[in-house]
Amino acid sequence: MMTGLVMVSLALISTSAACTFESASFNLTGIVCRMTKPAALVLNQQTAQVIQAAFRHATYPDISGEKSMAFLGKVAYGLTNIQINDLSIENSDVDFKEKGSIDIAIQNVTASFRGTLSYGYTGAWFVKLTHSIDFEIDSSIDLHINTKLMCAKGRVVADTSDCYLTFYKLTLHLQGDKQPGWLKQLFTDFISFTLKFVLKSQVCKEINFLAQMLSDFIQDRAANFLQDGPIGVDISLASFPVIKANYMESHHKGLLLYKNYSVIFNDSMFAPSLLSESRMLYFWFSDHVLNSLALAAFLDERLVLTITGEELREMFEMEDTEAYQGIVQEIFQGTSYEDSLAKVWSLTPPQITLQPEGTIVKSSVAVELSISSQGAEPTVVLYFEKEVTVTIQTSYVEKKLVLHLADSVIEPKAFKCVLYRAGDDRSLKHFLQKIISVAGIPEVISRIEPALTSLMNSKGLNLFEIKNPEIITKAGYLIIQLDFDFPHHLLVDFLKKTL
């Protein structure tokens, strides 16, 4: 649920003015994301791709200048059509600073630039000469980015404007001539400073632009992941991002976004000690968030299930229900299973409680069985209501959501039967109780598993290389913790679409 590069911290991190939070805003936290140092190191492996994109996408303006030279008068020069020709990065490192920044150091960026050098000078006898010559510049650069986490419009942002380039080599070659000459020496000496300034300005500007674009892209993806149709979750910040020596953490509101409904809570149970630092990525969810989503699903009339034909036959003829086949024959009265239809729906919004034993879901459920005979309109032969409480243990295996039924409690409420039966209703009620426990609840779970997996895959979760994910439930909250490999192709796709 929810979830770039280190410079934008898995891009829950762009640049702007700070947000204002009320003193109690931390209590509104419904979702927390924590990324540890090992995750930052994995993401940092992709930093080279963004740095290369920044160098290549940056526009380098024409450079011009003038200098007085002894015996030559004033010498004017211009560098035009500057383009990057080759680029490589030797090493990159990242470090968290508890002052609220992320330091990224990129060592030995080797870059080659090409363009045209035009120059002219006015001698003592006012003789004007103008020349134009192709040039190539070889450079070796260290790049340091001090990324500060800030906030804008409720989002985590990263300001990368604190960006420095250190040049260890800047060599000018003219027309492919690799040997120093007086002309080369002349221009190398007094254009180097100007060229360094332009490169720093343009490259750092482009890095800041890409950081903002990547930040918005991933946060949009995170919001989209928690949205389906009109149902969504507000992931705007509840408090300022936190950076410690071994992790960075962002706190989000997690409020329901559904039409005009408003679900507010102010008793968040989150505390930093609830999350450890041994895994790469953590997500913390309050049960308020899950209850809000369950309410929206109910209001949007999504908690309805129909069971027809072969599915009904399998349920009524299970091994555990063989002793009740006489009751089954009375229910269907000689009609085919294909002429029957069962409808199951929730009468009230499900109440979700998170406990160490699992996710406990409680809801009032209605079941209606109708049968068609010889083309006539369907007739409702059974209607009953139950209070159902189930305990579910959840895991994510081989990119599929797995729901394990740990326990269930079924309490009868209403019952209506229009059948003419030879037996009493007590045996029928007992049979229906059996059907719900051994077949009905597993059938509902078997429908929910692929539906939720499909929904998550539609948001792109299956594109990520998730390792050993764990879903841990505690009293009032759940934790998702995992390791991962960053899918390089997603970064490539982003750069292609953005640049």
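(the above was protein one; protein two follows)
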Amino acid sequence: MHCIRSIISILKCNPTGRIKPKINILNYTNNNSYTGYIYRCYSKINEDHSDDIVNELCNGDPEKEKMLRILMLEVEVMRQDGRCAPNNLQNKHWQQLMQLETRNQRTKYLLYLWKTEKSKENQKAKKEARRKELEEMKPEANKEYSDDITYGICDTSLFLRIRDQSINNFDNYRTLQAQLHGLPIVIDCSYEDYMVYREAVNAAKQMTFVFGDNRIHRDPFDIHLCNVTREGSFMKQLEKNIPSIKESWFPLNIHTKSYLDIFPKNKLVYLTPHCREELTKFDYDTVYIIGCMVDKVNNEPLSLAKAKRDGIKMARLPLDRYLEWAPGAKKNLNINHMVPILLDLKSTGNWEFALRHIPRRKLMETKILAMQNILKNTRLSNDEVFKNLKRYSNLKGVSLKNRRSNSRKSLYDDE
């Protein structure tokens, strides 16, 4: 295996396949004759750290060591065949590969790592090309007078430059004020056992967006992460996305205990799409709870069961009253959609304005626009297209605008 890697490294450095010798010309002797040329061939030896990885991950377990050796051979065969496999794999990547059962799952995970590696290489190449381009730019024309002032980005400017760190400090200060005077909101992180690794990573990514959207809002929430597992995949990925989250000054409350130990039980309301009670208006005396879960594999109503076990109130957003959903669209929203909706609802009280954060791909309007675009290249008439749409929806000749107004009227009558 080591010899094969060495041969491949030589071929990559010299695509023609010819080994260029290093020529060392000896000094002439006293009788003006020389001994000739000495050809020396060199090959670059790649360091093999497979034994260190096996010793660190397996801890002397023969079954794990056998499995890891097979995985290393499988990845090396993929590289030899020219398939997508990353060149550098860390210990956490090998550990994740050992947890995947099928070859298809491992292939997809290696493809993801390969794309991530190539993306970083492309970004580095673009930065290097940009740096060379700036260095090769022609200097500006000579000044007419020696004491002329040159204006520009790199020279004298009429405007005060506000740097990224200043904006970051300002946003963090707004969030710190919310911890003192803002309304609290709870993110329930107790669903990590029901998610696979990629779902936990996706949940951490959504939580990163939640923190960013919350702190740039004019009236942010005081976010509390409850039921957090410090050594779990979710928290590790969140610390990777936000490196400063471990600092004491970071404006985010992280708790390993339950929300029942922090807030009064009678003020808690769990937002779940599986209950029957609708949320008609925002209550400023209520602490809303949002479940942090990505349910691409597990579609069970876990949040409903959790709220029933804890004995707290439940509510769901009135999505059907204000929106016309596309056929087959799921009404489960991500936490990076739920928190901005509640932020706008708290500030304005307008449901139509708050629900603008819902992805447009879930709505009937997007489907109608897509069908209209299809009509331009097909022979179907408009009547046939809308007839097919009415078959899957309950439009029945009522426009979306009228339906929204009727739903608003019924909602206000319920109050």
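Reviewer note on protein two: The longest strand covers residues 184-188.
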